[in-house]
Amino acid sequence: MIRFGLDIGGTKIEIVAFNAEGESIYNQRIKTPDNYQNFVAAVYHLVCDAEKYLSCTGSVGIGIPGTICTHTGLVKNANCTFINGHDLKSDLQQKLDRDVFIANDANCFALSEAVDGAGSDGQVVFGVILGTGCGGGLVVNQQVLTGPNGISGEWGHNPLPGYSESSDGQEQQCYCGKRNCIERYISGTGLEMQYLQRFGQALPAAEIISGMQSGEMSCRLAYYQLVDQIARSFATIVNMIDPDVIVIGGGLSNVASLFDDIPKQLTRYVMDHECRTKILPAQYGDSSGVRGAAWLPVSR
Ligand SMILES: [Zn+2]
């Protein structure tokens, strides 16, 4: 049985085919089209070309940078905005003549890591992508947990726990309309914003991290503030759902020291001041989204 996973991004669409052993046997990337009709046609052709090349058909799972509204069935909150408001699932099912499974890309990330990645030993896995922004997904017994609002895992749009202006800086307006969302702090852009506020210098996140690694005081202060904010944010997850594993992906997951420093801080904030939840880097890195998308049809 071949499983196709597609990862939809603002700039590219990737398709990967996996065989029964979970090995990648085909992949293709194209530029993301700029309108809905061309987008549906592009997905259709990606699947058809893959099936022609492999001489077989397969299941189709798709990770999107948004979600399907459980009430209307239409895409919402996608940053490639031209798919918003469309019944993407129905349109693709009609075109491809089969069931098509669609989920938020952070949920796909979490599913991939829960099924056969860093969280495969755990029953309850929370996946977090700490990149430009921060996204989350919750997987229980290798199934993505969804709810009536289609926003499970969006803990990044809760207010930063324990916020104080003296240590966390000025209040931040989030694009979602709320103030002081976790995402505004524990992300690459959040780190840069805080560094700028605190030290008056615009420095890319990668340079703040390399500065921290070479012992520069301002970078170290910004980094340890980030660690503390991540720990406060993770403590709310641990106290609420007590996951076996929190898997971190995205650009910040390449910072190895986080996986020593976050657990130490986390024990300060969780109930009982003891925490057995593992904090691990993603096993499949950037491939987790497409891998998780391919797992969607079989994880239901
Ligand atoms: Zn927000």
Describe the structure.
With about 300 residues, the protein is of the alpha/beta class. It has 2 domains: about 1-110 and about 285-300, Nucleotidyltransferase, domain 5 (2-Layer Sandwich), CATH 3.30.420; about 120-280, Nucleotidyltransferase, domain 5 (2-Layer Sandwich). It has 9 helices and 12 strands. The strands form 3 sheets. A 5-stranded mixed beta sheet has the order 3-2-1-4-7. A 5-stranded mixed beta sheet has the order 10-9-8-11-12, with helices on both faces. A two-stranded antiparallel sheet has the order 5-6. A hairpin with a 2-residue loop joins strand 9 (about 135-140) and strand 10 (about 145). Helix 6 packs across helix 7. It is globular, with a radius of gyration of 20 Å. It starts with a strand and ends in a 5-residue tail after the last helix. About 45% of the residues are buried. The structure holds zinc ion.
Identify the notable features of this structure and list them briefly.
5-stranded mixed sheet, ROK, binds zinc ion, carbohydrate metabolism, hexokinase activity, Transcriptional regulator, Nucleotidyltransferase, domain 5, 12 strands, 300 residues, alpha/beta, ATPase_NBD
What topology does this entry show?
Elements: E1 2-8, E2 12-18, E3 24-31, H1 36-54, E4 58-64, E5 67-68, E6 75-76, H2 88-96, E7 100-104, H3 105-116, E8 124-130, E9 134-140, E10 143-144, H4 165-168, H5 188-199, H6 205-213, H7 217-241, E11 245-249, H8 258-269, E12 278-281, H9 288-295
Parallel strand pairs: 1-4, 4-7, 8-11, 11-12
Antiparallel strand pairs: 1-2, 2-3, 5-6, 8-9, 9-10
